[in-house]
Design brief:
47% of the residues lie in helices and 22% in strands. With 456 residues, it is an alpha+beta fold. Strands 1-10-13-12-11-14 form a 6-stranded antiparallel β-barrel. The chain has a 4-stranded antiparallel sheet with strand order 2-9-7-4, with no helix packed on it. A hairpin with a 2-residue loop joins strand 11 and strand 12. Helix 1 packs antiparallel against helix 2 and helix 6 runs antiparallel to helix 7. It is elongated and about 140 Å long.
Length: 456
């Protein structure tokens, strides 16, 4: 109800009004947030009780934990008197699924809340993080050690329980801290033709005909744009008329053998011919012919007929689709690792963003140094769905908020997907780094998270 009223207020107020901003926030707080928190069955709010009633499993959360504890006590520790909390095979499945899903989601939500609080109040967030570490790790660990040492149900299998616990802890430690695991870095970029010819108007005139954008053109082929300049045509007609007059005067002078007059008339005719040639050249330039092979790209060209274009106005470009280049922008956390850990000539897996089924490979041909601030394309910025933060003070929204690394990749030839790639498509590149233990990878990610959010 609150979200509905807020939506009406938001739709009927101007964007610069305070009520509009308040209503906008209320729409999400009273609808999306309600669904995420109140309607989510993995937290003990309304959605949890609805799910519990639908499944006819009372006290779902507590019993799911007890079921997980039962599995460990009975099948790992060998406890003989472990009580089974489920009453049917259906309950077993739901209890096991719920305890795993709810635990993962609860930790995720808690971490997000801690990060949000730390963004606003760093010391409060740090204090909450330490309290969470104690309550999530040290308190359960202390209870578990006490259980192993004193619980009566383990009196006959305590050695097995301790051995299994140590073996499990060793396995986790070795898996996380010693085994070399694949390490990948991902960055976003876009496809562009290596050869790109911009097309400019070479002479003033009114547009009469244009070729539609997206067609394939050949060098020197049919005109991309045909314009008309009545003033140039009138000047040429006037010059031609003057030339005919001078030719008539020349014939009369030739009959009277007036040498001086003949030489003067020949000079005038030669000057008129030069002017006519220049006019014809300007008129010929009213037909813009392709200067190279490729695809004619001019998204707004359909609105051009009838408009007046001046010399130097850009009308489009011709892109070569047979020779493509992928330009990747890597942030300051991934960029410095690419040169030493991946290097030139390395193979990179690429996927078209939004179409993970379209994949191809490429070879790194160039890694530009850090300090780049001008994005190769606005499509890579936050405002149009990209991954790079942009400087909001830049009117073109093409200057990145932080310097980045640029990696240029040549798509490997003879791949079936290449003819379907389009200029401007965004792609995701996956860089394969040397293998590292998970502990090393996680520690680096945690440090980068702290640096990114708190500039520490």
């Amino acid at each position: 109800a609150v979200a509905s009223v807020a939506a009406v207020v938001w739709a009927n107020t101007s964007a610069d009004h305070l009520a509009n901003a308040i209503a906008y926030n209320l729409i999400f707080i009273a609808s999306v947030s309600t669904v995420i928190f109140n309607g989510n069955p993995l937290l003990r709010f309304d959605g949890y009780y609805i799910l519990s009633d639908l499944l006819e499993i009372p006290n779902l959360q507590h019993r799911s934990k007890e079921y997980l504890y039962y599995l460990v006590r009975k099948y790992v520790f060998g406890a003989r008197r472990a009580q089974h909390p489920s009453q049917s095979a259906k309950e077993k499945s739901w209890l096991f699924f719920f305890v795993i899903a709810s635990t993962i989601y609860r930790v995720f939500i808690s971490v997000r809340i801690l990060l949000f609080v730390a963004d606003k109040l760093f010391f409060v967030g740090a204090l909450l993080a330490m309290m969470a570490l104690v309550s999530w790790l040290f308190v359960p660990l202390g209870k578990f050690v006490r259980y192993l040492a004193t619980k009566e149900e383990l009196s006959r299998t305590r050695g097995r329980a301790v051995t299994a616990t140590l073996a499990f802890a060793t396995l986790i430690a070795v898996t996380i801290g010693a085994i070399q695991m694949p390490d990948y870095g991902h960055a976003e970029g876009f496809v562009e033709p290596r050869q790109l010819a911009e097309v400019y108007v070479e002479s003033d005139g009114f547009v009469e005909h244009v070729e539609p954008s997206g067609i394939r053109v050949q060098r020197g082929g049919e005109p991309l744009l045909v314009a008309h300049n009545g003033e140039l045509a009138a000047q040429r007609d006037q010059l031609l008329a003057e030339r005919r007059i001078e030719e008539a005067n020349l014939r009369l002078s030739a009959q009277s053998d007036e040498v001086v007059t003949i030489q003067m008339l020949l000079g005038r005719i030669e000057a008129l011919d030069a002017q006519i040639r220049r006019i014809n050249e300007r008129i010929a330039k009213l037909e813009l012919k392709p200067s190279t092979h490729g695809i004619w790209i001019a998204p707004d060209i359909d609105h051009s007929p009838g408009s007046y274009l001046r010399q130097g106005d850009k009308v489009g470009m011709i892109a070569s689709v047979d020779d493509l280049l992928v330009r990747i922008t890597a942030d300051q956390y991934l960029g410095p690792r690419i040169a030493p850990e991946v290097g030139l000539g390395a193979q990179v897996d690429l996927r078209v963003k939004g179409r993970p089924d379209i994949g191809f490979t490429g070879t790194i041909r160039k890694i530009l140094p850090a300090g780049q601030e001008r994005l190769p394309s606005r499509a890579l910025g936050y405002l149009v769905g990209g991954s790079m933060a942009v400087d909001l003070e830049d009117p073109e929204y093409q200057r990145s908020a932080q310097p980045f690394f640029e990696v240029q990749i040549d798509p490997n030839p003879d791949q079936a997907v290449l003819p379907t790639l389009l200029s401007g498509q965004r792609v995701i590149a996956r860089f394969e780094m040397p293998k590292k233990p998970l502990a090393v990878q996680w520690w680096r990610q945690i440090r980068q998270l702290v640096q990114r959010r708190f500039q520490a």
